[in-house]
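#random but structural
TW: two for the price of one
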Amino acid sequence: MNYGRLEGNDVLEERILGKTNLKVKALGFGGIPIQRVSEEEAIEVVRRCYDLGINYFDTARLYSVSEDRIGKALEDVREKVFIATKSICRTESEFLQELDISLKDLRTEWIDVYQLHNVASKEDWIKISSRGGALEAAYKALDRGKIKHLGITSHNSSILTEIVKKDIFEVIQIPYNYLSLMAKEELLPLCNKKNVGTVIMKPMAGGEFSRADVALKFILKDENVDVVIPGMMSVVEVEENVAITSHPYDLSADDLKLIEEDKNRLGTQFCRGCDYCQPCPQEIPISNILRVESFVKRLKGTDKLKELVKGSKEKVDSCIDCGECESRCPYHLPIREMFHEKIEYIDRNIK
């Protein structure tokens, strides 16, 4: 799809992020993929987002070098953008330590939206909200001006629905796409009713959908969505996504047919590239291996593709069968079983 060259920052729709009243562009930036490219490439990608009008940038302490790279790219325009990051820590002391690291790496004195990350269960919430938990730390950080707005993320719509009812958070972040529809049923309408900002992750299921335009239009036509944050690891992807979201979100009959084809092709057992399975004690690049078909589609014939899968068989062979990755996967994938299928695919398709 070619919409011509894009310049300026007035082509993206602007929406209000719930009760934060932040005026965000409907297309934001997801900071996971820039871990997988060089620092120079990462900074170029983030800066191109800014040049084209994207003003909401999402990252996390868990995303290794992502915060540092976003900080370097946006330091000189800090007051013109909104930065969101998050911590998986559950205790007050750990949370405050991570926040200070984030502030340093992001080269800023404040975080616009700071989120309690990957709250997957009632047990997680009990730890966070109990005395000495991360929620107490978050309130202190708000009072000190280190955090402007407080959010929460999860892959579990049911958990977030119950938490939103407590009227604590201004923003939630949840996966939502045409293969993950749970958020659409109750959570997103509830957020709209309570004026809680909605940030949508995994709109393209980690790059597994056939066409980005169909995936993004499906999300952005939903009136209960404020901002969608696809991960982007190249300037080309940035420009394509901006072009897509600068036009009407109507889905054609062919688009709807493609959605059904993707549903039939992918089923439910595929990697979304969230990297919550990491770190692996054997340093196996789990998501790179599980998502190899997606990388072949996007990078076929390039040195970058060969680099991503280099030594994959040897790395998988080093697996000690501990199962830690599977216990952390929010989609409960049988990762160890999937490894062998992916290695066979690599042997057949990448020389």
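TW: number two ↓
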Amino acid sequence: MNGNLVILAGGISSRMKKSIPSENLDHRLIADAKSITKSMIRVDNVHKPFLDYLLYNAREAGYKDVVIVIGKNDNLIMEHYGKKKKGNHYNGIIISYAIQKIPGGRTKPLGTADALLQALQFRTDWEGKRFTVCNSDNLYSKHVLKLLLDSQYPNAMIDYDRFGLQFGQERIEKFSVVKKDDENFLIGIIEKPTSEEIDKVKRKDGRIGVSMNIFQLSYNMILPYLKKIPMHPQRQEKELPVAIDMMVREHPKSLYAFPVSEHVPDLTSLDDIEGVRNYLDKEFKTRELWD
């Protein structure tokens, strides 16, 4: 059991910055959303960044060693969590940073697979161990973080029940669906699924599993696929689910999908802020974290 966690926060938050705010949204939140990375938006009523809540859940689940993948010019995260590249102590967690470089000729990073590759190349001391990797703009629960940390499988993921997510139907239908065998081992992750593909993965009880991009992975098993993954032909990025698909095709029954039914607060656009704030107010009572 290794309390190692990679949080992917190197994106440029383009969808958040392009979204149109509602008339009722606080001007401070609009300014945050338009100027800083999503995970640092002070979305609650006590002005803590969203990322604090994810780190708090991670610590409560048992994670100790956290690598945050950040963009080259993202100084705000380092100013908040510690300015050293490695070994910042923050409320019982040790935080380090892997800076995701942008290749020449591009204006944005190469994607989530590239972000994880740079994190693992930075933390070669994790070789031979397992780690959890997740997005910075989703608030994963202590329950699922601990489920992965305590997993006895070499690789695992959370297979969310689509009907447990509290999003609009149109949005949910765009989520990646999870294709599994009868023993719940991953066969593949279908991005932007068609209605026919969704019907094929539907279980007899009507359950449809979706991926919210949280995985427990073996350093040694996933690393070769992060290195050789091809560029997506349309989006021109290297995406983590594709690398995982490559891995499970060559290593069947190597990644177990834990079925879970619960909501995952998400900060994709300005429309999400009010719902996330209400969730934090209910679940955390807007109290100061780390007490």
